[in-house]
Amino acid sequence: MIELKNVSIQAGDFRLKNVSFKIETGEYAVFMGRTGRGKTTILESICGLRRITSGEILVHGVDVSDWMPGDRGIGYVPQDLALFPKMNVDEHLSFALKLRKQPTNKIQKRVSSLADQLAITHLLKRSINDLSGGEKQRVALGRAISFEPNALLLDEPFSALDEQTRQEMHNLLKKITSESGVTTLHVTHSEEEAVALADRRYSLEDGVVIGQNSPKKGIHDMNIKVRFEAQLRQAAGTDIADIDLEESNSISRVFSVVSEQFGKDVSSRLLDQDGNPQKSLLVFVNDQPVAYDCFTEGTLNDGDIVSILPPIAGG
């Protein structure tokens, strides 16, 4: 279990005040929100790399707010992975165990088991500099879980991977966390990752964590109403009816599903050549405008009304 109670953090001029949320034991929680809002700062505070100014950080019910990072029993994979260039794969997997002065035979057994689980046995003697992006991700994950932590923190670990490798890592991570039962908090901007991995969702909006009272509904449990304004119908040159969606919790997903339903004429008005929402479109949720950089985040709630309009002429 990971719980923050009224935590305040200051990093230079940046401040977060009274942050509170709770992840139950064994849950996989995804933390979303716009860039620069403090998600990484919260992760660093949980694992002890950044001090809090007030409040409590609890891991399995124990207040670890003043504990040193190595005493908190938390595995951490930062966005840049922070691998050691002069160590090989074997040394990375055994690093945390040696720090904890585990017996040599126990270390060897754990490294062998981890390498097999992560499918990197053939890489154990290889230098970090000779690994691919996906292989480095596996090593970083292995180092983080090597000592069987009480909690696992992941900071956008797959953002630099290609789609196929990212999907492989999703499957591997889901298998490992499910088998180990480790409580996990994963920062991501990817709706795909959230859908694939999360038991619970949180969103950090203007310093407030949304969704902490109960697990958010999954993508297949939502009912989102999509309304096409008259201007868009006219611009598309086709009769498109308002629809209800039960598989959407981000603006991007709304666009994709709508385009699939109404075909190429509508799709060309909504998506660019790369399949992303057109930046010139105007989108409102419950009559409130939504910024483009929020489109990919899981910020829609059950019952929301999404209105889509063409761009204002000359705007």
Nutshell version of this structure?
The protein has 315 residues and is an alpha/beta fold. 31% of the residues lie in helices and 24% in strands.
Description:
There is one protein chain. This protein is α/β, with parallel strands linked by helices. The protein folds into 2 domains: 2-210, P-loop containing nucleotide triphosphate hydrolases (Rossmann fold), CATH 3.40.50; 219-309, Ubiquitin-like (UB roll) (Roll). The chain contains 9 helices and 15 strands. Residues 212-221 have low confidence and may be disordered.
In whole angstroms, the N-to-C terminal distance is 49 Å
- N-to-C SSE string, H for helix and E for strand: EEEHEEEHHHEHEHEEEHEHHEEE
Number of helices: 9
Question: What's the mean pLDDT score?
Answer: 82
How many strands in all?
15
CATH topology of the largest domain: Rossmann fold
Query: Which residue ranges are poorly predicted, with pLDDT under 50 across at least 5 consecutive positions?
Result: 212-221
Helix percent reads 25-40%
Q: What descriptive keywords fit this protein?
A:
2 domains; 5-stranded mixed beta sheet; 315 residues; alpha/beta; Rossmann fold; Ubiquitin-like (UB roll); 9 helices
Please describe the topology of this protein.
Elements: E1 2-11, E2 14-23, E3 28-32, H1 39-47, E4 54-59, E5 62-63, E6 74-77, H2 89-99, H3 104-117, H4 133-145, E7 151-155, H5 163-180, E8 183-187, H6 191-197, E9 200-205, E10 208-210, E11 224-228, H7 230-236, E12 243-245, H8 251-262, H9 264-270, E13 282-285, E14 288-289, E15 305-309
Parallel strand pairs: 3-8, 3-9, 6-7, 7-8, 11-15
Antiparallel strand pairs: 1-2, 1-4, 4-5, 9-10, 11-12, 13-14, 13-15
Helix pairs in contact: 2-3, 2-4, 8-9
